[in-house]
Specification:
Blueprint (H helix, E strand, L loop, with lengths): L24 E3 L2 E2 L26 E3 L11 E5 L5 E8 L4 H11 L16 H4 L4 H13 L13 E7 H8 L3 E5 L5 E5 L4 E3 H4 L2 E5 L8 E2 L4 E3 L29 H4 L12 H7 L13 E6 L5 H11 L4 E6 L17 H13 L4 E6 L8 H14 L4 E4 L1 E4 L5 H16 L3 E5 L9 H4 L7 E2 L7 E9 L6 E4 L1 E2 L2 E2 L3 E2 L19 E2 L2 E4 L6 E5 L9 E5 L2 H17 L1 H6 L5 H16 E2 L27 E2 L1 H8 L12 E13 L22 E5 L11 E11 L5 E7 L10 E3 L6 E8 L5 E6 L4 E11 L6 E12 L12 E9 L12 E21 L10 E3 L6 E8 L5 E21 L5 E11 L10 E6 L13 E9 L5 E7 L10 E3 L5 E8 L5 E6 L4 E10 L1
Parallel strand pairs: 1-12, 13-15, 13-16, 14-15, 16-18, 18-20, 20-26
Antiparallel strand pairs: 1-2, 3-9, 4-7, 5-6, 5-10, 7-8, 11-17, 12-28, 17-19, 20-21, 22-23, 24-25, 27-28, 29-30, 31-38, 32-37, 33-36, 33-38, 34-35, 34-37, 39-44, 40-44, 41-42, 41-43, 41-44, 45-52, 46-51, 47-50, 47-52, 48-49, 48-51
Length: about 1000
């Protein structure tokens, strides 16, 4: 975060009109600019590098800040300069924290809306006591005096001179003069700490004073009563706002100004009505909302607004790193205006709520540490269910240490059930322009933080059903938005924002000052009393969304099912399920303010996000009941023909409910796939689904992971590929969580297809499984199951199943391992019950000559006891049976995916060697009664062509295979393997390779 608020540098576009981020009061047609000045210290001594004492080899944390563009180095920083630092610590298990946030945000999860209690974070997710003590000791050994750790255990405060910090962290300091003439200091190297504690530290904040924090509001235009003596102000005057009963239409200062509500400004009632929110004196009752501020607020202006709207909302202040009366007074028409906008907007929309103003030092002198302190206090106090911030800075300017510390704080807020909303900025797609002069695409922090809801801005005309909304972009500014340069793609945006990193904003609301927010502000040079004015900016949009969440929390549904908490998971689920019901899509305009930016379109865009709220629909979605996940022993229901649930190439299951997309899944991205209620699958009671997963149009080597939505992503894999332009498929049995969806993650950019073959339910109406010793039913290379030994080319093979390989006449479905080998060109296999129409979904795919590729399929058996296998292209085909489903047999139980074997951690499985793997008693698999196990087996680091066979330990090795490969390939396949009486399965490989085995469930 930042030290000072800079005025905009000269440059292209609208720089001349948009001069500074503090508010300006427009009197009649003239504009009075408010200059911002910063007092800086003069260097009086040099600081040199020093050593870092402590145990373990030193390790640097993060990176050193770069000298800002246009700045000049003026010398070394005075050795006696006082630095207020924080050494920020990682949670004890960051992945467990992320998984917990997902769980409490996912309907159907047992932890849904079961948030941490106040003060519980430190003991559950905070660093261990040993970690805190270890880091503190290292700091003391380096000559520093660490203070008391924060209540959440995440930061250790340190006050030191530049000389002491230089010695302790092995870095120098230098002063730089910025283009505006002010001076900052920067550390010359990333801070260093002993290796034995460095891994526990996410960063050291406060070693640099550069960066800019700014509020995101526009200039204001003053209103005046038509025909009133106060229409024109000459010199200083005073006026009184007469208190009245609650009136969301406001008082005569606005209604008598000659301006039109719903055209020139939006009263609380008009704005609430347009967004479907409640408008009453008690709206938000019982709720608390907090605002982040870096300035004083004029109490008289807040009182004037309350009198105008007829409210008595509780507004209190918590001072952080400052005291009452410190800092610049809110009397010049500039200081305090951001605070007034935030607070007045909330008073108007949720007058029944309590508002807490968390106030830090003035933005002109606030440091990174001050900003973190305010956010941390808002979270550790845990008094407010909703947090709103209208301050931020260009993401590219912010240090990684500050960003990482913020990220953990906002994750803590999410774990506690606090919703955090942030303005996305007013500089369009060029968020760094005011800080650095750059017109390159950039986004604002904290709006880009993964655990924060970024709020963009719109222009609005009319009200209710007759209202229209477009992107806000005019001479006053433009909505911030784009793609983060820091944060990876987030699961909740999967299939909606198909960008290489986190996209911003998430949502939007009114921001245009031409039809903006009524407030009162104080400018003693014009009047001794607060002045009515109209103002805009995404600073108004953020508290509007905060108010929408407060109203949802106060409603009947959330009161029964728990408050909204972390907003983004629910927002994007609501958009997938019923986009037009829950959001007002903004489809016109762009955010090209200083340079070409992004254009609004149907559905999500990097201009206005998902759009503006439709409160009634959103409340129903965000305050949904928990639901119940189906669990326990399950029976199988095959589909007569595979159904396609996802195809990113043509938008099937991809994008919003009414706005599909055809973009591929990006590297590191996640595709949520709706299972329950889709493709003929019941809307409840499903425990697992059998999917055929296909990647096509790959851009490089990669892997795919499938798991239950709303649960933590496992460290397993279901499908692997080795290069670009490949098409490859694998079957996967995936647990289905309470929200009825599964997630698919890919490590590289690719198109993705998901076809469902069948599903399991907790009822007893389905089929049960019987494992068989694998047997070969078909091999076109050697006339097994067929009368010829030639490759099959664009033809159907009829495979006899019942009465063969141990499959009885009562079997309804068969489990086959299909392998295509000695392929010519590209092609695919399709398996389906004989006599049925050939499906449009494939089971095995290949894209090159000489490919050998397997895949497990579950196929209903035709009435004649046969299965048809269609070969598109030319290939030999192998089919091995490993089991069948019927009315007898055993049920299936899912487990959390877990890697049971990885020979890369020990030694490769040698050619002609056998490895026994313990199955029972691991993960959630019982120690006894297990008859078969469902595994994804992967070979990698293959040294030649070969095959792998899996079977029950203690039995003889079958002649069938489960995986086949050629040298250099990484191949995965699902296998259902009988388990020996000792609870083990055996793996044999015909050539040396690494073997991985991930469990999905068991038959018992």
């Amino acid at each position: 975060m930042a030290k000072k608020a800079h005025a905009a540098p000269g440059g292209p576009g609208r720089a001349a009109v948009r001069t500074g981020r503090r508010i300006r009061v427009i009197m009649a047609a003239s504009t009075a600019a408010v200059a911002l000045t910063v007092v800086t210290a003069t260097a009086d001594g040099a600081v040199a590098h020093g050593g870092t004492p402590g145990s373990g080899a030193p390790k640097r944390i993060g990176t050193a800040p770069r000298v800002p563009a246009g700045a000049t180095v003026t010398g070394t920083t005075a050795s006696g300069t006082t630095l207020h630092l924080s050494v920020n610590l990682a949670p004890r298990d960051p992945q467990s924290l992320a998984d917990f946030v997902t769980a409490v945000s996912t309907p159907g999860n047992a932890q849904y809306h079961h948030y941490l209690a106040k003060g519980q974070f430190a003991s559950v997710f905070g660093p261990t006591r040993a970690t805190i003590v270890g880091v503190s000791r290292a700091l003391k050994a380096a000559g520093l005096s660490p203070g008391k750790v924060s209540p959440d255990g995440l930061s250790i405060p340190v006050t030191a001179t530049a000389a002491q910090a230089s010695h302790a962290f092995d870095t120098g300091f230098r002063n730089v003069r910025l283009k505006d003439g002010t001076t900052d200091y920067l550390n010359t190297s990333a801070p260093s700490l002993p290796a034995d504690v460095a891994s526990s530290v996410t960063g050291v904040v406060g070693l640099s004073s550069f960066n800019t924090v700014t509020s995101h509001h526009t200039a204001a235009r003053r209103t005046s009563r038509t025909g009133s003596g106060s229409a024109t102000v000459s010199g200083r005057s005073s006026r009184t706002v007469t208190a009245d009963g609650y009136s969301p239409a406001l008082c005569a200062d606005f209604t008598g100004s000659g301006l039109t509500d719903g055209t020139d400004y939006y009263s609380p009632g008009k704005l609430a009505g347009t967004y479907g929110m409640t408008s009453s004196a008690t709206a938000g009752a019982g709720q608390t909302v907090a605002v982040f501020e870096l300035e004083n607020v004029d109490a008289g202006s807040i009182a004037a607004y309350q009198s105008c709207v007829g409210t008595s909302t509780s507004v209190s202040t918590v001072y952080v790193d400052t005291t009452a009366g410190a800092g610049a007074p809110a009397t010049d028409g500039s200081v305090g205006v951001e605070s007034a906008l935030d607070i007045d907007d909330l008073i108007g929309l949720v007058p029944g709520a309590s508002i807490i103003d968390y106030q830090g030092p003035d933005a002109a002198s606030a440091t990174d540490q001050n900003v973190l302190d305010v956010y941390q206090r808002m979270v550790t106090d845990d008094q407010a269910q909703v947090i709103s911030t209208s301050w931020g800075e260009c993401e590219a300017v912010e240090s990684s240490a500050t960003a990482n510390a913020e990220n953990t704080i906002f994750a803590e807020a999410a774990a506690q059930g606090q919703s955090v909303v942030a303005a996305s900025g007013d500089d369009g797609s060029s968020d760094c322009y005011r800080a650095t002069g750059s017109t390159a695409k950039a986004v604002d922090d904290p709006a880009s933080q993964p655990y924060v809801t970024g709020v963009g801005g719109t222009t609005m005309t009319g009200s209710g059903s007759g209202a229209t909304q477009t992107t806000w972009n005019n001479e006053a500014g433009g909505t911030g938005g784009g793609v983060s340069s820091r944060w990876a793609p987030v699961v909740y945006q999967g299939g909606i924002a198909t960008t290489a990193k986190r996209a911003v904003p998430d949502v939007s609301a009114l921001a245009d000052p031409a039809d903006g927010y009524p407030i009162y502000l104080q400018d003693t040079s014009q009047s001794s009393s607060p002045i009515p004015a109209i103002i805009g900016g995404t600073s108004g949009a953020a508290p509007t969304w905060a108010a929408a969440i407060v109203q949802a929390n106060a409603g009947t549904a959330c009161q029964a099912n728990g408050r909204v908490g972390f907003l983004n998971n629910g927002l994007y689920k609501a958009a997938r399920s019923s986009y037009p019901t829950n959001f007002w899509d903004v489809t016109s305009g762009d955010n090209s303010v200083y340079a070409s930016g992004y254009t609004a379109a149907a559905g999500y865009d990097e201009v206005t996000g998902l759009g503006s709220p439709k409160e009634a629909g959103l409340t129903s979605a965000l305050c949904a009941a928990q639901g119940t996940a189906a669990t326990g022993a399950s029976t199988f229901h095959p589909l007569s023909s595979p159904k396609r649930l996802l195809d990113t190439r043509n938008g099937i299951g991809w994008g919003l409910s009414s706005v599909p997309t055809t973009k591929p899944l990006v590297a590191g991205g996640t595709a949520p796939v709706k299972i329950e209620g889709a493709g003929g699958i019941p809307s409840s009671g499903v425990t697992a689904v059998v999917l055929n997963l296909t990647v096509t149009g790959t851009t490089g080597a990669g892997s795919l992971i499938a798991w239950a939505d709303g649960t933590g992503k496992p460290s397993t894999s279901n499908l692997n590929w080795t290069g670009a332009s490949q098409t490859i498929a694998a079957s996967a049995t995936v647990r289905v969580a309470g929200d009825g969806a599964v997630d698919l993650y890919t490590s590289s950019t690719t198109h993705l297809i998901a076809d469902v073959q069948g599903y399991y339910t907790s009822g007893t109406t389905g089929s049960k499984y019987t494992a068989l010793k694998p047997a070969r039913l078909l091999d076109t290379r050697s006339k097994v199951g067929i009368s010829t030994a030639t490759k099959i080319s664009n033809a159907v093979v009829s495979l006899k199943v019942r009465g063969h390989g141990g499959v009885p006449t009562g079997a309804t479905s068969v489990v086959l391992n299909l392998t295509a080998t000695q392929t010519v060109g590209g092609g695919y296999l399709e398996a389906y019950p004989e006599g049925a129409t050939r499906p449009t979904a494939s089971n095995v795919n290949w894209s090159a000559t000489g490919t050998t590729i397997p895949n497990l399929v579950v196929v209903p058996i035709g009435s004649d006891g046969n299965v048809s296998i269609y070969v598109h292209g030319t290939s030999h085909v192998i089919a091995d049976v490993s089991g069948y489903f019927s009315t007898s047999g055993s049920a299936f139980d899912t487990v959390t995916p877990l890697r049971l074997l990885d020979t890369r951690q020990t030694t490769a499985l040698g050619s002609g060697k056998t490895l026994a793997l313990q199955i029972t008693g691991r993960d959630a698999i019982p120690s006894t009664g297990v008859k078969a196990v469902v595994l994804t087996v992967t070979v990698t680091g293959t040294t030649g062509s070969g095959y792998l066979t899996a079977w029950a330990d203690g039995g003889s090795r079958p002649t069938a295979s489960n995986l086949n490969w050629v040298q250099g390939k990484t191949i995965a396949n699902q296998v259902i393997v009988p388990v020996g009486s000792d609870g083990k399965v055996d793996f044999y490989t015909s050539s040396t390779t690494q073997v991985l085995a991930d469990v999905a469930g068991y038959i018992g």
